[in-house]
Amino acid sequence: MDTPFSTLIRTASHEQHTEAETSTFMSDLLGGRLGVDAYARYTEQLWFVYRALEDAADALKDDPVAGPFVQPELMRVGALEDDLAHLRGADWRSGLTALPATAAYAERVAECARSWPGGYVAHHYTRYLGDLSGGQIIRDKAEKTWGFARKGDGVRFYVFESIGNPAAFKRHYRELLDAIAVDDLEKQRVVDECKRAFSLNTAVFRELGDEFPLSAA
Ligand code: HEM
Description:
Layout: H1 5-12, H2 14-21, H3 24-30, H4 36-55, H5 57-60, H6 77-88, H7 100-115, H8 117-132, H9 135-146, H10 166-178, H11 184-211
Helix pairs in contact: 1-11, 2-11, 4-6, 4-7, 4-11, 7-8, 7-11, 8-11
């Protein structure tokens, strides 16, 4: 395969990226049309997904395919828990529920983590590289819309304290993708799983959109 894998996976998911970015829920959220409750509900959904991603980190850290991607500076569960404590209060766990689409997404991540390292890489890429990129736009909007302190409580999920230079980190991440220890057929399967990961995200946005419709103004 001549095309670097990082290019392949980005190109293959480009269309779905646009779809996710322009989903009703994301557009309303970024357009400042939703209350902080919608943002908190979204943050709760992320917690389930990152639990699935990061609960597997230890078991996969020495795996030849997934291991190189497991990096402590990416870990988000702690930051999500800090955000949820700020957004929902100290007993944030008591009211926490996964939407059906979130439960399905987290289960698929866990399934890949258990049985298919290449699939885990697809989910890892879809979330973490996205958080390092568009996540920064979401943070900026959230700070302005709901008045969170810059890079402070409520938006810590988007702040990678241990990554001084996100652009360099992303470059390095793409090098890891290009060096992934799988054959061409498996690369195609990973790309397909990445598309599935995008669909799983879009499904969560759809359910969030149903829960937080804009009143017809
Ligand atoms: C409104 C929401 C979003 C915005 C504004 C946004 C914006 C962006 C931007 C500007 C980039 C390019 C960064 C660069 O070239 O370095 C990017 C990359 C990326 N985004 Fe998003 N994004 C959003 C939602 C999402 C979602 C929901 C996902 C998937 C869960 C996602 C996954 C990714 C990935 C994987 C990349 C890296 C592409 C690559 O370089 O390989 N994004 N995003």
